[in-house]
Amino acid sequence: MTLIGTSVPRREDERLLAGKGSFLADQAQGAYHVVFVRSDIAHGDLRQIDVSAAQEAPGVVGVFTAGQLGLRDNYIALLHEPDPEFVAATAFTMVDQRLAVMADRRVHYVGQIVAAVVASDRYLAEDAAELVNVGYAALPVVVEMEDALDAEAPVLHEHLSSNEAASLSFSFGDPDSARAQAAVTVAETYRIGRHGAVPLECRGVLTRLGHRTGEVDVWTSTQVPHMVRRGICAATGWTTDEVRVHVPDVGGGFGTKANVYPEEILVPLLARLTGRDLVWVEDRQEHLTAAAQGRDQVHHCVLSVDAEGRILALEDDFLVNIGAGSLWVAGIVANTAIHLLGPYRVPAARVGGRGIFTNKAVVAQYRGAGRPEASFVLERSLDAAARRLGLTNVEIRRRNLLTAQDLPYPRPLPYRDGVPIVYDGGDYRACLDAALDLLPVGVVAQEQAAHPELLIGHGVGCYLEATGRGPYESAQLTVTPQGRIEVMTGAASAGQGHETSFAQVAAESLALPMEAVRVLPTDTGSLAHGIGTFASRSAVLAGNAVAQTAAQLVDAGRRRYARATGADPAEVGYREGVFQAPDRDPAGWRELARLGGPGEALEGEPPLRAASMYRCRTVTWTMGVHATVVGVHPGTGIARVLRYAVAHEGGVEINPLVVEGQVLGGVAQGLGGTLYEEFRYGADGGPRSTTFAEYGLPGASEVPEVQIRHLGVPTDNPLGVRGAGESGTIAVAAAVAAAIDAATGCTHVTATPIAPRMVKSALDAA
After folding, report:
1. Domain ranges in the chain with CATH number 3.30.365.10
2. What sign results for the dihedral spanned by CA atoms 247, 417, 419, 302?
């Protein structure tokens, strides 16, 4: 069989591109609608919530506040805590966050839910919501992290003593001696602006009541259905057998939907209270105001190098603005700190990071979750050192990148899972060479001739990514009465091509044609345990879980065949979907399934099914290099990306076409955050980017053709796969910034999104 490694066309695309997908809003027929009343101030005490007029509005079933719902002290549980070994090694601390399901006494950001309206349709619910009269006593607002840490700053959460949500620090080697001996030391402050996923489909939650079973069926546009179920149960006190979470087609997630939201708890709670099926579908303004955002970091970085440009020490002190809170603060701060070391030889380092509360919207893991920020800081520092030494950007990387002689490369630090970090790559310098082969520096002259009106520059950026984070993922394979194999995993698809890739793994493992396998959407009622889709983990964890479970299904099929035929189980063979033993008639999956039917040899036996959890010891590492050619218009400072290439050292590609799509999409998102996207806030905490007129996105004309080269280096898991879901995003800002510097000759870009006015000012000054 050769299905793994083959670019099978995505089987879900025929359905999705024809408009035949089944998204959450497509399944809402007959349900009453929920509209949430949200805070319109960033910080204040709630003095009154008058719902009397709204309650009397046409079509309204009820208007509910936290007190009425019994949610005065109900909070959403954190989604990640690091292993104790990591905590000890990095002095990691994290405060008791209390993210309210619904605001009761105080609001902390514009968009926080203060009341819910249930009505017979969306229009009537929105009309009624406008009648809810909320009275606030405004409190001082803190938007910037530096202000939040000031001794005189108001503490935003009443139960805490400061605005620091989490912190860590670690060091190794001797950074002080390294700095003293360095030929060049560069120090700079880097800022990564706040932006986010902004998926094509906004969030949504549908709840239908099982009046006979008492079960609450929840459909939600999420990447993490099992986490959502746990969040609902933790906040309401319901048991897991009372709640079933389904995942419909999801129109993009990118980390924003790898979160547990108040709406996912409130809609089921309101459905049970009112006895009605309920739906909430977010509109775009709601999403740009209240959905989780990302990035928003400030780094103070010092890089010391010798006279040859070799890294002697890296020192970085950074802040992460998590807004009113983050269920993923531990992961974001830890990811940033770990990935600051990059794919280089770094003999000494001192790193400290903190997560800071402000009056902005909440934060989740947006594609990369700390990795793009770390890459930007380290790569920009290398560019600054190269300029001081008179080296090219390429040469300083060539001198520092790990090679085949260095790898595997241990680091004196455990990963978040507590296992010591060892980069398990092949040859990172070869990846740089591959990227430059795709897009050599020499093309600058060609582009200059084609675009005489622009200043042209070439840039590169490198990244390293921990992928396949555990601890486990689950899979279940079931044989239908017709002999088809149905596959379900805990890794819910949000557009990544799971229906194709997991079918390839199952078909290959079972030696069956693809047509015999169908991948089902994730459903916590059918699959008891799971983690979810995020952090470049699905191929590694869920893919291996499918392969492992397929082997168990074959064993179950052998035992069933032996029972039915009286054969010795040890003599039962399996080949291309057929079981056979000496002196026995062969049987396929369909015949085995039929044996449990009425009057058959194994009457009453349950359907053939196997389920397992694949566990990994630790992460595996993906490395890559981005190269780009950028044109800068000298009259406006506007940058235009003309060419782009990515070489990445991944593992076995289950479906190269799917991997290519992941990288292409990642580059597009990276360009958005580098040049266009930013959630801006006023001094009063009011969001200033609540429509697409204010929040810029790249279009087809802003994303060039991207050349991709895959350097396969298998890793230590049965399929030999590495994650690649974030590979296209991580190094974009670093590469584009380097190209702009090269084009202008007078800038050192230190912030994203890269503002044309900054570039224009530098050009004018020069």
Report:
1. 294-469+617-765, 472-615
2. positive
Q: Where are the beta strands (DSSP E) in 558-712?
A: 573-575, 578-580, 587-588, 609-615, 620-632, 639-649, 706-710
Contact 460/740 with Cβ under 8 angstroms? no
pLDDT of residue 514: 96
The rounded distance, in Å, linking the Cα atoms of 241 and 213 is 10
pLDDT, position 72: 83
Residues (pLDDT < 70) of the chain are: 1
pLDDT tens for 484-542 read 999 999 999 999 999 999 999 999 999 999 999 999 999 999 999 999 999 999 999 99
pLDDT at 1: 58
Fold of 472-615: Aldehyde Oxidoreductase; domain 4 (3.30.365)
**Could you tell me if 502 and 471 are in contact, meaning their C-beta atoms sit under 8 angstroms apart?**
no
Q: Which two three-digit tokens encode residue 97?
A: 């966050």
Compute CA distances 581 → 574, 577, 701, whole Å.
9, 14, 61
Q: Is 263 helix (H, G, I), strand (E, B) or coil?
A: helix
Q: How far apart are CA 205 and CA 32, in angstroms?
A: 12
In the numeric block, which tokens belong to residue 398?
């060539």
Strand order in the sheet with 164-172: 93-94, 164-172, 349-356, 311-321, 294-305, 184-195, 751-752
291 DSSP 8-state letter:
S
The predicted structure's pLDDT at residue 74: 87
In this structure, whether the domain defined by 294-469+617-765 belongs to CATH 3.40.50.11030 is answered with: no
